[in-house]
Automatic annotation (TrEMBL):
PROSITE patterns: GNAT. This is N-acetyltransferase. Residues 8-168 form the N-acetyltransferase domain. PANTHER family: GNAT-FAMILY ACETYLTRANSFERASE, SPERMIDINE N(1)-ACETYLTRANSFERASE. Pfam families: Acetyltransf_3 (PF13302).
Length: 189
């Protein structure tokens, strides 16, 4: 089953995606904008990561594909808590030439639609490094997420500490956004 947005398709990550994912995994310009710690990784490591994807029901990762363009990134729903109906969400657009064209917004909206309308989750969480103002703008001003807190001096980058912005959205927030923006109005899905 693929998840269709207005501009993107979220699908399973396939073995044929690994060369491009490996390239992005070793691009410091991409990873400085994301949380977590990253080491240079080999293609062998990438294959082992891929082999473990299908067995993990609490951590779902998707390829982000744009029709006519191809693979442009990945997104996820991880640390899924089925008892309390919440999950952590992240997105990484690796293809630099597609940025600023609405693919990130559509990816986030598509993940929210799947999480809230299909999985019946109650909330999603994410974190943003304080200097990633592009992501902060997309999540808060375009996709309805709320800044729920700050963890000071959380990330260490370029020989200094940066704050971690805690972001969240609830089912009610999502449905209010969709009603106000008519985001899915032209969609038949």
């Amino acid at each position: 089953m693929n998840i269709h947005g207005k501009k993107v398709i979220l699908r399973a990550i396939e073995e044929t995606d690994l060369p491009l994912l490996h390239q992005w995994a070793n691009d410091p310009e991409i990873w400085k904008m994301l949380g977590g710690w990253h080491f240079p990784s080999s293609f062998e490591y990438q294959k082992k990561w891929f082999a473990a994807l299908g067995t993990d029901q609490l951590n779902q990762r998707f390829a982000v594909e744009a029709p006519g363009v191809g693979l442009i990134g990945t997104t996820n729903l991880v640390d899924v808590d089925w008892k309390n109906n919440n999950a952590f969400h992240g997105v990484m657009l690796g293809a630099k030439d597609i940025r600023g064209k609405g693919y990130g917004i559509d990816t986030i909206m598509s993940v929210m639609r799947f999480a809230f309308e299909e999985l019946h989750l109650e909330r999603l969480d994410t974190t943003i490094i304080e200097y990633n103002t592009i992501s902060l703008n997309i999540y808060t001003n375009k996709c309805g997420w709320k800044h729920e807190g700050t963890r000071r001096n959380w990330y260490f980058r370029n020989n200094r500490y940066w704050d971690r912005l805690e972001m969240g959205i609830t089912r009610a927030d999502y449905f209010a956004l969709v009603e106000e923006s008519n985001y899915w109005a032209d969609d038949q899905g």
